[in-house]
Amino acid sequence: MKKIFFLLAASTCFFNYAQQAGEDELGAWYMYFGTNKVAERLSLHTEAQFRLYETTSNFNQLLLRTALNYHINPNAIATAGYGYITTDGTFLEFPGEVDSKEHRIFEQFILKNKVWEFLFEHRYRLEQRFLDFGTRTDTQHRARYRIQVTLPLTDTFFLNFYDELFINLQNELFGQNRLYGALGIHITENSSIQFGYLKNQFSNAVFDRLQIGFFYNPDLRGIFKKKAKSK
């Protein structure tokens, strides 16, 4: 436990306040995440994120991601997936500007454990990034580690916190650090919503973002069985 809290505390030391265009604005990320169970040990991950430099305007990024999860046991999940990302890298609008596009392949491993009432999740991810900037292309590799802690408050409400470190596997080692806290609400047995705040630290900039995330995790095994019988 001491190591975990040290990691969370140490991550805040990254935060400084370099003043660049867009950093004085409070942006927002609107997000959907789905874990769709299709077999006893298999599920499909679906995800969409719409990110803005300001809370309701000024497009920054669209991220679409899907993956196949293999549930080794209730506390261990192996995943392989693909993401498509289009990004406007500047807060200000420029005539004729071309947004960058990225095709991303990723592999990840999740471990879960419980300490008292705290639910811990450790996510390890590798990414292969194929970027197109319009006038040039680039291939980059990156590693990510996220520690997440969830604390149930009641059957309906919970708190969620995470810290995620991004490590570049080329050039400058430090990529970014994300520190997040949210209030979550269980809507139904398989759906919830989180209202959160993210501080996103890069080597030369800090961004503050509101986050609204909707999580929907249906069990689709019955649908697949019906389709198999109909054939």
Low-confidence stretches: 1-21
Number of strands: 11
Number of helices: 2
Number of domains: 1
Head-to-tail CA distance between termini: 52 Å
Fraction of helical residues: under 10%
* Alpha carbon gyration radius: 19 Å
Task: Give the DSSP E fraction (strand runs of 2 or more residues).
Answer: over 45%
Major β-sheet strand ordering? 1-2-3-4-5-6-7-8-9-10-11
Q: Biggest sheet, in brief?
A: 11 strands, mixed, barrel
Mean pLDDT across all amino acids: 88
Query: Which assembly state applies to the chains in this document?
Result: single chain
**What's the CATH topology label?**
Porin
Supply the CATH architecture.
Answer: Beta Barrel
**What's the CATH class label?**
Mainly Beta
User: Structural class of the helix and strand makeup?
Assistant: mainly beta
Topology order in helix (H) and strand (E) letters: HEEEEEEEEEEEH
InterPro entries: DUF2490 (IPR019619)
Pfam families: DUF2490 (PF10677)
Protein name: DUF2490 domain-containing protein
Which features does this protein show?
eleven-stranded mixed beta barrel, single chain, 2 helices, 231 residues, Porin, mainly beta, disordered N terminus
